[in-house]
Amino acid sequence: MNMMTKSIVSAPRVPAPASIRHEGSRVLRAGFIPLVDASVLIAAAEFGFAQREGLSLELVRDVSWANVRDRLAFRQFDIAHMLSPMPVASMLGLGSNPSPTITPLSLGRGGNAITLSTRLFARMQHKADLRDDASALENAQALARVVRSMKERGEAPLTLGMTYPFSSHNYEFRYWLAAGGVDPDTDVRLVVVPPPMTSDALAAGAIDGFCVGAPWNMVASERGVGRIVAAKQDIWPSAPEKVLGMRPEWADSKPDTVMRLLVALDAAARWCDEPENHDSLAEALADSRHISAPVDIIRHVLSGKFSLDAKGNSRVIQNYFTFHSDHAGYPRPSHALWIYSQMVRWGQVPYSEAGTAAAASAYRPDLYRAALGEEAAPADGDLRIEGERPDDRFMDGHIFDPGSLSNYVESFPVAWRKPHRQDEDT
């Protein structure tokens, strides 16, 4: 069945804003990267959610996050699927083209994982007597033992891939490495690799591991070239992932369009969360216009069923993707401030009160509430302490208090770099 002709199912009707002012064309050009966490945008376009609110989403598949950033800044895109740190970086003036960007909506939680080459994982097992069911922290500690051994033997440092310096992948990879005792700036080499290229780069030996979003981790494990050693939920379950990016002046000039867009995407997110819709969603995502990956792999990652390697080791992660439930769509400023804390920790920006305010301004819960109502906002507010709830711990037990950001950064044994230039245009 043609995806464009499928009808909406299992989605509650959410009324559009009552009034519509003339704002010009209702065709919105939306950039995205081929990842499962683009599901909400793709579902909104493919299953009629945008159309129901009087909008047409023209999806444009892109090849890199730098391209997405630039095309949004240069007005080739109206909106974009973006890494959660990208609006924060833009409001801090980071990167080669820091055009102001805001987000009024998170596109969900989950989806990332860390995959190492089978060769490297075999060394970890040998060096640390590592079990197949070892935890994420135990895997990181085993890697640290291999890294120390490599240094003693005079071997070249490992090369590890991530998607973009201002990305959840970079910060989660660094967090995992540092928690295990690996300094990500001095013990290994981190490079940028576009998500669809990670599996091939691992197979060719160009990199020794990577952190990226689904489905590319399981593509590598099922090819027999990689072993998944940690998932996003292991590092911090509530860690922000992808967001809806837009220029603030565009949002200011088209308030009704923004409201209708958020209504459409909220309804699409509800629909994406329902397991009975995952077969239809997987088919849409697998299409060559979107992710262009095997539909069976996409079905598995939507359900949280992981092939950790080609030897039959597997794992089920509950709520590996959460698109709507538990306020997954809410753009919480404390998440923006945690991102800022990681930028400070790893020397991308110095700490300042002005920087704190700029980082928080990238996330716009006011626009979310204006479109979806005050009742859609979480009861625990915009600036909550992160990592203290039993189901939402950081892997190393740290607690993030957004009111004590500098103390948080200073509390890590591997922490607080002198700010340095970021080469990130790849």
Short description:
The protein is built from 18 helices and 14 strands. The chain has helices spanning 39-46, 49-52, 65-73, 85-91, 118-128, 136-153, 168-180, 198-204, 216-223, 232-235, 248-253, 255-273, 278-286, 295-303, 333-345, 353-361, 365-372, 405-410; strands spanning 27-32, 56-61, 79-83, 102-106, 109-110, 112-117, 159-162, 189-192, 209-213, 226-231, 242-246, 305-307, 314-316, 321-322. It folds into two domains: 25-111 and 239-291 and 324-410, 3-Layer(aba) Sandwich (D-Maltodextrin-Binding Protein, domain 2); 112-235, D-Maltodextrin-Binding Protein, domain 2 (3-Layer(aba) Sandwich), CATH 3.40.190.10.
Structure description:
It is built from 18 helices and 14 strands. It is α/β, with parallel strands linked by helices and 426 residues long. It has 2 domains: 25-111 and 239-291 and 324-410, 3-Layer(aba) Sandwich (D-Maltodextrin-Binding Protein, domain 2), CATH 3.40.190.10; 112-235, D-Maltodextrin-Binding Protein, domain 2 (3-Layer(aba) Sandwich), CATH 3.40.190.10. Strand 7 (159-162), helix 7 (168-180) and strand 8 form a beta-alpha-beta unit. Helix 15 crosses helix 16 (353-361). The longest helix is centred in the middle third of the chain and has 19 residues, at 255-273. It is globular. This is NitT/TauT family transport system ATP-binding protein.
